[in-house]
Each structure stands twice: as structure tokens, then as C-alpha cells.
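Sequence, C-alpha cells reproduced for absentees:
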Amino acid sequence: QVQLVESGGGLVQAGGSLRLSCAASGSIFSINSMGWYRQAPGKQRDLVADITNGGSTIYLDSVKGRYTISRDNAKNTVYLQMSSLQPEDTAMYYCKAVIRSWSGKKDYWGKGTLVTVSS
């Protein structure tokens, strides 16, 4: 069974930094894209950043220049380095990966890690 586990969230002051990690485990044949989404209370879940297995990246406009997504394919892990954090970045951050396993090619989600930025 494939699962994603996020870590690294927490409380940080405005202007601070955090690094999120998301590790995929289980009977994994291959991982295509890996990405981070966020959802603030009462709002929709938005794509924050995504990275392909070839290393191509995309970012939400509001985080460009502040966030960096990276991945370690040997560890099946994706990271999100967040800097210059602002209160509007406060949200639950979710990891998503497109994984091929015995169940075929599917999207898998983590349970989320909370990021709170105080002013």
C-alpha cells in the first residue's frame, strides 16, 4: 500500500522560513510528478508547486521567488523550502504524488501538515 507522509510544518513568525518534507513509501514502481498544495480555512485547495521526475517545476505566482520545490528520487521524497513567509501563507499544506504501483497509475495524497505564520 502506498502512502505519503508530510512533516516540517509549524508556527513561524512573518519573514521566517520552514522546510516541508513528504516521503512516499510502499510498493512503488515509479513516481511521476510530486507537488504541494495548500488549503486555508474556507478556501479551495490550490497548487503551490509541482516538480516532474525530470526536475521541471511550476509555482503559484504568489510564492515565486520565496518557495523552492525539490525532490530526491532515491528517497522518494519531495521538499518545499519556504522563506519570507507571510500570514497569508498560513494553511494546511498537502503533498500529492502521481505514483505507479500494483494498483496502476494513481494520485496519492498525504494527510497534510499545518503551517501557521504569525504577524
The mean pLDDT is 97. The first strand starts at residue 3 and ends at 7. DSSP finds no helices and eleven strands in the chain.
